[in-house]
Amino acid sequence: MDTISWQTITPEETPELREITAALDAFHEWLAEHDHIERGQLISEALDVLTGDGRDAVVDFEAVLAVEFEEFFPLDRAYLDALAGDSELVCIAEENASVRRTWVETGPVTDHVSFSESRRGDSETPSTRPAATAAYFAEETVSADPETGSVSVLAADSSDEQLAEIANEIEALVAQQDWSYDDIAVATKQSGSAVTDVIEAFERSGIPTESTTVTGFGDDPAIRELLAVVRHLAADDDDDVPGHGPDLDEERVDRAAEIDGLEEALRWWATESGLKAQIAERASPLDARAEFGNVRRAFRMAAFLEDTEFMEATWASLAEMLERAHEYAPQQNQTSATELDGGVRVDHLQAIKNESFRAVFLVNLVDSEYPGDPFLSRLFPTERVASMPDYPGVTQLDDGEVGATFPTTSTASGRPFAQYHTEHARRRLAVGAGAASERLYCCLYEFEDTALEERAQASRFLTAAYDDLPWVTEADDPGITSERAAEEYLLSRVDDALAEVSRATSQDVTVSLDEVEAELGEIQELLERSGARGEELRKALRARVELATGEVRR
User: Fold this and answer.
1) How does strand 333-334 pair with strand 214-215?
2) What is the rounded CA–CA span in Å between residue 436 and residue 171?
3) Over its length of 554 residues, how does the chain's per-residue pLDDT go in tens digits?
4) I want to staple 444 with a disulfide (CB 3.0 to 4.6 A). Which of 15, 365, 422, 503 is the partner?
5) Cα–Cα dist 167/173, whole Å
6) What are the phi and psi torsion angles at 442 (to 5°)?
7) How far apart are the first and last CA of the chain?
């Protein structure tokens, strides 16, 4: 639905879309009455300025260079045309690479525009195996083996184990000379929970991450404290003061209430209460970095209220804003951007397009994900969306439009709608593969996370690449390189030893207790040399043994 706002689309045939458009128009009118606009109106507003009398006051250049032109929407192209005017305009587009524009418009971008002159660049033979794999996904071309770089298939039993294997492989890479975490990217098909699942798994493994699509805000102790302060300051009398939350210094609260300005008072509280030191003491470096960012976000909310005329700059307003942001935000909350300051890049595929990383991990390469089922909107069933002639996305098309947009053929389906979105999913893989300069990892799992543990089918795109490209091979076992992998191996060895002893009793087989005793002895010696962390693992191992023998501890 964002496309309706961004591209000023006006549906006329579908009743549901007309109602949504009417609601958007009413919202935009309300914003205009208060001298504000939605982000989605920026391009259309700028276009109005460029086509009006005020153009000369904002335009001062002789030429315009537009890169990644294959992703320009119709309104983007209209803005570009108005911006360039009589100046020289040069647009650079990559063939068979659009993933954003082809979600709403079929065919190559050159079918929708005309230029006085056009030139086709020379196509170069892929110089690395990841680049050759990207060309295969994008155009179904099989080139000669570049013999540089690697493309590996990393498989695990479950999706959780897949992430653990990726974390282990990342630690093996950064253990090598001249490798760092920011040389590596992990790409998912979608944003949202798919990205946050990876981030949370890596945080448990001690791997730093960065992302352009997510940052933490919900369930943040620092935000909870600031929210408690704001609630106290917003209370009209003692009866309105919340009876729950962290204990606050009443004298400090009274002094904060005397300060003019929401942002200044909030910053004063954070300084006087030692909030920065508290975060550094209680949180790991990864969590502390996220909490500092969230505190800055709370400051910006206070500053926004003070600069906005149509909302009252009161503690009650700030309390409501923080409550909504905190209550409805998950532990990893989606946002438009966040600072990138080191760590493994975790993002959806579109976000890493035309970037370069030494190693890229493409996760969840199973058929239920690539291609998966076509999905266009959470508001309506897919079949209903597919029948909407004026939906702001590709729904109504024929075989010719599919072939004009994608040179690949990956499905036997006779429905153009299914064909189109299957090939679109394949192109996303091409974008991810193209971001890898040295190593590409295609990651998948064997069993779904369901009660019946149904077997997951490998993506048809990966299966075809494995058959057609001789350099696509199974990944080597990197051994144990991360703390999490070491813990899991340690616990599994105890489980295996207990299982062997149990099997000897039930199946009348012989087990060498000397070998079991020797292995457990080595584990005991290792734990003794590991300090406090070893003591924690010793407790976990003891609990495993007691559970296996039927004992219950409270």
Assistant:
1) antiparallel
2) 18
3) 566 666 667 788 889 988 988 888 888 888 888 777 877 788 888 888 888 887 888 888 889 999 999 999 988 999 999 999 889 999 999 999 999 999 889 999 999 998 888 888 877 889 999 999 999 999 999 989 999 999 999 999 899 889 989 998 999 899 888 999 999 999 999 887 788 788 878 877 778 888 877 655 545 678 878 888 888 888 866 555 655 456 678 888 888 888 888 999 989 988 888 888 888 887 766 667 777 878 888 888 888 888 877 778 888 888 888 877 765 544 443 333 334 456 899 999 999 999 999 999 999 999 999 998 888 887 888 889 888 888 888 888 888 899 999 999 987 777 898 899 999 999 999 999 999 999 999 999 998 877 666 889 999 999 999 999 999 998 876 555 555 555 666 666 666 666 666 666 666 667 666 776 776 677 677 667 767 767 777 777 777 667 666 665 55
4) 365
5) 10
6) -100, 110
7) 52
Q: Global pTM?
A: 0.72
Token pair, residue 204, equals 């448990």
Of residues 38, 45, 51, 43, the one with CA closest to residue 72: 43
Measured distance CA(156)–CA(169) in Å, rounded: 13
Assign 3-class secondary structure to 374-404: CCCCCCCCHHHHHCCCCCCCCCCCCHHHHHH
Q: What pairs with residue 455 in β-bridges?
A: 447
Strand partners, 91: 66
Query: Look-up: residue for tokens 């591209």?
Result: 7
- 3-class SS shares of the chain: helix, strand, coil, % to 5: 50, 10, 40
247 vs 224: CA distance, rounded Å: 11
Distance CA 94, CA 67 (A): 9
Q: What is the pairing mode between strands 436-445 and 88-91?
A: unpaired
- Beta bridge pairs of residue 89: 64
Q: Which amino acid is at 404?
A: A
Inter-residue contact 228 to 246 (CB < 8 Å): yes
68 contacts 78 by C-beta, under 8 angstroms: no
Q: Give the residues across from 185 on adjacent strands.
A: 345, 360
Supply 219's token pair: 């369930």
Closest CA to 424 of 120, 98, 176: 98
Give, as one character, the DSSP assignment of residue 457. Answer: P
* Chain centre to alpha carbon of residue 308: 31
